[in-house]
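Course assignment 3, question 2. Fill in each field.
Student: A.L.
Task: Predict the tertiary structure for the chain below.
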Amino acid sequence: MPDAARLTAAACLALLAFILSGMIMPLMPDDTDFGYFTVVNIVIGFLVGWVLMGRRAGNGFSAAITNGLTGALALVFWGLFVQGGNEMLRLAMRNYYDGPFEAIFAIFEHMVEFGAYLLNPVILVTLAVGGALAGLATDYSWKRWP
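Answer field:
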């Protein structure tokens, strides 16, 4: 059921995804074609905020911060999974893999490869602070507009 907490969580995580996407792009190799990278990450952020964070709002200050950090980690997981799957499909269309299981395992290899770019301290701090603020904003909107 739509409410202010879900909308706030979705908007906050979409904004966090936008900011993080802009921070990640300069760290990637120069020949990387990003295509819809930022748009896909914003949609993932919106969905994670709506589905995961919005329904868990209203349990207090520490639970709000935990909710925000959980949402931020879920954003990272699903972002890596979708981007890894996209890279696997791109290579699969060029007959890079010998079979379907090799292609499926490649998704997780690409997740690890792309996740290495996230180990930048600035990105980790932005992710943690942004997630905590998103959780607090979600909790505030749940209290303000029930």
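Instructor remarks: The radius of gyration is 17 Å. The longest helix spans residues 61-92.
Grade: pending
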